[in-house]
Amino acid sequence: MADVYTNPEKHVVLSNNVKMPILGLGTSHDGGYSHEAVVYALKNCGYRHIDTAKRYGCERYIAQAVKASGVPREEIFLATKCWPTDYGTTTTKEALLGSCERLAVDYLDMYLMHWPEVSSGVKDRKQLLQETWRALEVLLDEERVRVIGVSNFLERHLEMILEECSVVPHVNQCEFHPFNNPKVLRQFCADRNIQFEVRLYTCLIDKIVFS
């Protein structure tokens, strides 16, 4: 087993006692997808946390990269996201199963609601977000996923979930860097034992380093 799960400096323990590697490799459709880079990160750099989303269109490629790396499935913390057009009681489960099929896995380590915004035709956003969260809770109960959470949610969005939830979100993944430090949101999450997960774009690294 990779030391990322035995070295406390390399993982965080979430509210449900699941260990999540601190350093994750984000994948996206923006800027292209590199099979070689993902394989190298897994095989040579010790990465064990891979983050993606259905929206990015590279779940099938990640399955190929994991297989090529030779790293056992149980060592990889695999996270993907549910796009708002898939929100709903039944469609959320269908979306998760679709992601599992494309990623060639039987379960996900983490599944996130990608955005708090929904389609303009939805009459009651709050109700849809709450229904979708309940679907994630059921998937957690069914052991289809080990960790459930949200992405890009602000305090007002989290409050909608917290009003009706049985399981408090384990994670809130948000943009964070020197130009965007949401201190109030971070404290809101900390007070409720929601892990604030940092998302940093490589284009911002260029800006930070070379400006």
Automatic annotation (TrEMBL):
UniProt cross-references to InterPro entries, sorted A to Z: AKR, Aldo/ket_reductase_CS, NAD(P)_OxRdtase_dom_sf, NADP_OxRdtase_dom
Record domain NADP-dependent oxidoreductase: where: 33-196
PROSITE patterns registered for this protein in UniProt: ALDOKETO_REDUCTASE_2
The organism's taxonomic lineage, starting at the top: Eukaryota, Metazoa, Ecdysozoa, Arthropoda, Crustacea
Domain of life: Eukaryota
Gene Ontology terms for molecular function: oxidoreductase activity
Gene3D superfamilies: NADP-dependent oxidoreductase domain
Protein name: NADP-dependent oxidoreductase domain-containing protein
